[in-house]
Amino acid sequence: MDCLFCKIAAGEIPSAKVYEDEKVYAFRDIEPQAPVHILIIPKVHIKSANEINDENCAIVGHIFSVAAKIAAQEGIAEDGYRIVNNCGEGGGQTVGHLHFHMLGGRALAWPPG
Ligand code: 5GP
Ligand code: ZN
Q1: Residue 82 CB partners (closer than 8 Å, separation 6+)
Q2: Can you tell me whether residue 51 is helix, strand or coil?
Q3: CA distances from 70 to 2, 66, 87 (A)
Q4: Which end of the chain is more exposed for a tag (fewer CB within 10 A), N or C?
Q5: pLDDT at residue 113 tops 90
Q6: Contact partners, residue 96, CB within 8 Å, separation at least 6
Q7: What pTM did the predictor assign?
Q8: Complete domains list, the chain, with CATH
């Protein structure tokens, strides 16, 4: 499958890895929007949040448990951070493999643009 994030998770395209286990891969965004900007992805190809269902939704809980560990590792747990999923073109999704942005290390405005 010609998917950028599947290739990154498989190590076929280099990335700045932050965390990896058998189900999840996390790496630094190439265009960081905050001092900490990490992408957390399932290794299995799921196109977007629209494709989360009763069969595959356990990965989302696992991603959030990994996110808490990463936040502690990155030193942003106490000050706080944001986890964002952009779904579809209107939601700002540009890579068609489910991913969660973790943004922290600065004060974040709300609502996002
Ligand atoms: P989206 O817009 O789909 O929610 O987020 C995609 C993110 O992937 C963007 O923040 C973009 O900077 C990041 N990105 C795109 N290509 C690459 C890449 O090759 N390597 C890394 N590390 N990040 C990428
Ligand atoms: Zn993929």
Answers
A1: 101, 102, 103, 104, 108
A2: helix
A3: 28, 6, 23
A4: C
A5: no
A6: 3, 47, 48
A7: 0.98
A8: 4-104 (3.30.428.10)
Are residues 47 and 97 in contact, defined by beta-carbon separation less than 8 angstroms? yes
Ligand that comes closest to the CA of residue 91: 1
Centre of ligand 2 from the C-alpha of residue 62, in Å: 18
Ligand 1 nearest-atom number relative to CA 94: 3
pLDDT tens readout for residues 10-48: 999 999 999 999 999 999 999 999 999 999 999 999 999
CA 48 to CA 87: how far, in whole Å?
Answer: 6
pLDDT of residue 1: 77
- CA R_g for the chain: 14
